[in-house]
Amino acid sequence: MNVFTKPSVSLAFNYDSRMALRRKWLTVSGFIAIAAAATMLSAFSGASTSQGFSPVQPVRFPHPLHVQTLKMNCLYCHFSANKSPDPGMPAVATCMGCHALVATNKPEIKKLAAYWNKKQPVPWVRMHKVPEYVHFPHMSHVNAGVSCQTCHGPVQNMNQVYQYSSLNMGWCVSCHIGQSNPPFKARYDCAACHY
Amino acid sequence: MSSEETESKGIKRRDFLKVVGGGVAVAASIGCESDRVEKLIPYLVSPDNTVPGVSTYYATTCRGCAAACGLIAETRDGRTTKLEGNPDHPVNRGALCATGQAELQALYNPDRYRSPMIRKNGKLVAAKWDEALKLFSQKLGETRSRGGAANAVFINQHESGSFPAFLDQWLTDFGMPAHISYDAGVDTEAIAAHTAAYGVAWPRFDFNATQLVISFGADFLDGWGPSVPQQLDWSDARAKLVGAPRLVFVGARRSLTGLNADTWIDCKPGTEVSVARALSGEMSVAAAAQACGVDATRLQAVVDEYKAAKPALVLAGGHVAGAAQLLAAASALNHSNGAMGTAIRPDQALLGYEGIAAPAQLRAAVARMNSGAVSLLMVRGANPAYSMPKSTGFAQAMLKVPFKVSFSSIMDDTSELCDLILPDHHSLEQWGDAEPVRGTLSLQQPTMDPVFDSLATSDVLIRIAKGDPATAAKYAMPDYQSWLLARVPGGSAGMAAALPKGIVAGSALARTAARPALPAIAQVPDIATTSGDLYLYVYHHPVLRDGRGANKPWLQELPDPVTKLTWQTVVEMHPLTARKMGLDNSDLVVVTTSAGKLVAPVYLYLGIRQDTVAIAAGRGHVNAGRYAKAGENAFDLVPLAENAAGGIALVNTRATVVKAGGSMLLATTEGSARQHLRDIARAIPVAELNGGAAHKEEPEEEHFQGDASHEFLPGLRSPVATDAQGDFGDPTSKDKGMYDPNHWSNMAKRRWAMTIDLARCTGCAACVTACYAENNIPTVGADWQAAQILPDRTGFGANITRSREMAWIRLERYYEGGEDGSADFETRFIPMMCQHCGNAPCEPVCPVYATYHAPDGLNVQVYNRCVGTRYCSNNCPYKVRYFNWFGYGEPHRPQYAFPEPLNWQLNPDVTVRGKGVMEKCSMCVQRIRGAEHRAKLEDRPLRPDEFTTACAEACPSRAITFGDAADESWSVTRLIKDERAYHVFEELNTFTAVVYLKKVNHPSPAAEPANA
Fold first, then answer.
1. pTM of the full predicted structure?
2. Chain A closest CA to B856's CA: distance in Å?
3. Cβ of A80 and B53 within 8 Å?
4. pLDDT in tens, A28-83
5. Is this complex scored with an ipTM above 0.95?
6. Sequence-distant (≥ 6) Cβ neighbours of residue B357 within 8 angstroms
C-alpha cells in the first residue's frame, strides 16, 4: 500500500500523537542519559565517596585495646605519619615485637603468627584513599597540629575501623579555608594538592 | 486514550523523580562498586634507614658508555625511579646525558630475560638457575677435556674497573685466553692515536685554555668520547663570552658539534687530512681546497686564524676512511701549537677508555669461529651480532660455534643466537667499581633488588669455580661483593664510609693476562675509487650510539638533536642534491653499496655536502625486543674496512641512491627550521656585548605593573586569576585572596622562574629525557600505539607524524642563513617548554578552569578538571601543551606507554595522566612542593637554590637555572638582569617566567672587518 495516498487528516492526527509520545520518551531517556552520564562522571572522577566503608580485615585489630587500655601512641605503629607523605603501616615484625609473647593463644594472634611464620605480610584492606591525582602529605598535616582524629574519626573507639570522613574535595577545602572546628588554615590553591 | 493525552503534555513530576531517583540509585551503587578493594601491604620487617614514601638516594656508577660517570639513583619504596648525576663525581660533576638517564629503561625493560634460558629443539625456553649452571659447567668441562679451552672466546662489553681483571683471572684458571673487551660505541682509531701521541687513551680536553678548536668530524659534544665532561668544559669555556674559543668543524656532515661550530669547512669524506696539512703548511691552501672540494677563501681564513691562535686544539674523529693519517696529522698539530699540556691534559685522563679491544680482534675471532676451532663462545653485555657490520660475518660465524653462552640481561641480536642465557643483573642491581680518573674509584652498588630472576655474572663465575675441585680453593669468597669489599681501602668499613659519596681513593685491579696482538687489518679501499654516485656517511646515532639505546623508548622517541627525527632511519640529503634527483622530504630511496642495500625516506638536511648522503646507525635490530625493531640497520651498508688501529671505518664507500617510488611520512617533531622573523632564538655578536653589564631600561618604554621584561613582581598574575580568586569568585571583591602578597599563605611572595642561557646550550637534549623520566611522560611512537585507520600512518613513529609526541620540553633547532644551500649557515638551539606566562593566553579560554595561574607564578594544569576541549593548546603561542589522544597512562588500553615493568619507573609524585587530558611543563611543581614540605618539616625557610627542576639538574652544559625570581638571593634573579636576557614573543604581553639569554656568535676574525 502506498503511504503517500493516505488522507492528510489521518496523517496530521498520527503526527500529533507520535510527537507527544516521542517527546515523552525523549525526555525520559534524556534524563536517564543525564543520570548515567553523571553516574559515570562521578564514578570515574573519584568524587563518589566510600564514607562509612568498613571492611573486615584479615586480622581483627582492636584499636580501643591498644590505644585506650595500653595507651599506645598512633605513631608507634603508623611510624612515618609525621615525617613522610605516607603514614606507614606497621611491619609484621612490629606486631610480633609484642605478640611473640603477648596473648599468643588468642585466635586473632594465631592468625598473625601464621602470617609471620609463613614470612608473609598481612594483606590489610585499604580504606582511606584519595584519587591518584591528589597528593596528600601526612607529615604536613600532622606537624601542623591536625590530630589523627580530625580526619580519621575516633579510631580509638573503633573495634573495626570505618572511613569516618568523606575525603571529598569539599571536605578538604572546608578545612583549608578555615571553616573547620578547631579552625585550621592552609593553602587552597589547586596546585597545593593537584599535580 | 485520555491518560495518554495528559502524559503527552510532558513528563510528570512523579515520573521525573522516579527516573532521577533510579539514576541516583544507579550512581550510588556504581559509586560503591568503583571502589576497587586495594590492599595495604606492610613490610614483613622494616628495612633500616628507609621511610615509606620518602626517597633514598644511592650513589653508583653509570655503565651506559665507557666513561663511567657517577650516578645518584633516587629510590622510593624499593624501586629506583630517577637517575641523576653525582655532583661529587670527577667525571660528570652532577650532569647526566640522555643515554645515561635511559639506563632506567634497561633496568625495567619489558624485554629483559626473566630467568635463565636454554635452547631446546631450536627454541629458547625458561629454565631454573641450577639446571642452567649445571649445563654451563658441563659444557666448560667438555671444552676443556677436548682441548678446546685455549680457543674459547669471551666477549665482554667494555667496562672500567676490577671486573675485567677478575674475569681474566677466572678465564686463566679455566685454561681460556683473556677476554675481548669490546665497545662498538667508541672511536678505536682516536684512542690509538691519543695513546700514541699523548700516552693515554682519552685525555681531558680543557677548552678553557684554547682560543680555537678545530674538530675534524669529532662530535665531542655528543658521542665522541665522554660527552658529559666535554660538554661541561666546552660550555664553561663558551660562557666566558668574550675571549671564548671559536669552533671550526671540518667534515662532510655537520653533527651536533658541527652545528655548534662557528665555521664549517665542508670537505669531502676522506679528504680531511688535506685540511690538516694545509693547517700545518705541508700543503698549499689552494691544493687542499682543490682536494677537499671546499672554497679556498674559507679555508684560507681558517688557516690564517689557526696560525694566529695559540694554543689551538685540534680534535679528529676516526670513523672516516684514512683516519690514521688524519689523526697523526692532528696529533702533530697539537704538539706544535701549544695545545699539549694546556688544552690537552693527559694528567687528567679518562681511564674508562683504556684497554678497549679493536673491532679487528672480533673479526679475527670470526675467522677462528668460521674455521671451526672455537667450541665455546661467551658474550656478556655486548651485541656484536648487530654492532659489527654484516660484512664482517659475525652472526654467521656464531652459528658455527657448537655452544654459545650469553650473559646478556636483555634480549638482543647476539643473545638470541646463543644456546644458553645466564641473564646478568643490570648495573643498577649489582656491585662493581670503576676507575674513571687515575686514583679514584667510582663505586657501583645495587640500588634495588633485582627485577627478575637474574644473577650477576661475577657471581655465576664464582659459583662455577666453586663447583670445580681444581678452582674451588681459590674462589673461597662467598660472592663478588665480598671479594670487592676486600679490595676497597679500609675493607667493609671503608666501603660503608665511601658509598654515600660514591667515590673513594684507590685503583681498580689491573688486567695482566696476555692479550692477543692486533691481527692483520682489512684495508680500507680508496673511497674515491668505490662505485656509486654519492659518498655514504654512516655514523653512530647520538643517543642510540652503536645500537645499545634502541630498546629504550625514551631514546627512540628523543628527537635526534640534529635531524629532529624519531623512531625512523632516514637518508640525509642536501636539498639541492634532492632537487636535482627530483626528490623531496619523505620520498623513499634505495641506497645500495657493495655490502648491501637499504630503503628509507629522504630527509633534506642543510648540513651535509651535496655529494654525500648520511644515515645514522643504531636502529633496525632484528631480535632486540619490541622497541628496537624500529627503523633500518645502516651497518648493513658498510663494506668491510678497517683503519690502521683496527677500528671500523664507517665512512669508506660511495653508494648508489635511486628513487624507490612511494613515500613514508617523516616522524619529525620539527615544525619549521626557520624562524620566519619571529625572533624566537636570538643571538648577539660577541663584539656587541656590553661586558655583562645590566640591561639598561630604555626611557621611552612604558612601564606598568607586571611588565616581566623588567621585573618579576611577587604575585605577578593574570587578570583572570585575580578576578576569579577574590572572595572565592566574587569579581567585585577587593579581596585578592592568595594573590595578595600579604596573604598569610605567603604564596604570592614568590615567582618561580627560569633562565636558559643559549650561549651555553648545545642542543644535546639531555633535558628532554630528564623531563620524560621525572614527569611520567608517555612515549607514543611504538607501532602498536598508533590508530590503525590511516594506511600511511602506521608503524613506528606513526603518532609522531601526527604531532602527538608528549615532550613537555623540546629542543627547537633553527637555521639562520644558508637559504641558497650554502655551507655558511648558523644554527640556534632553544629549549622550549611552558613559559608560565604571567598573562597566559591559555587561561582565559579554558571553559572549566582547568588551567589557571597559581599565586606563586606557575601556570597550573589541573588534570582532574580538564575535559579536553584543547582550547588552551589552540591559544598557546608557544605550542607547548600536549594532549593525551589515547590512554597512554591506562594499563588496559593498547596504547599504554609503560608495559610492565616499565611502569615501575613512574614517579610516584606525579599523576599519570589519562586519556583526553591536556598536559604540559609544570616547572616540576612536585619538586617545589617537595622542597616546601621538607623545609616545613625541618622548620626553616626555603634556602636559595636549594632545589631545581629535572631539566636543569641533568643539563650537561649548565644552561638552565631555576629559582624564585622575586627573591634576590636566588641566582636566577641575577641572570634575569643579564644584558642578553629576553622573553620569547614579548610583544604578546604574555609576561613569561622563562627568560632566555641570547646566544653569542663568534664570527670569524676574517669576517670582522667587513662587518665593522
1. 0.90
2. 10
3. yes
4. 566 666 666 655 555 444 455 788 889 999 999 999 999 999 999 999 999 999 99
5. no
6. B158, B180, B181, B182, B515
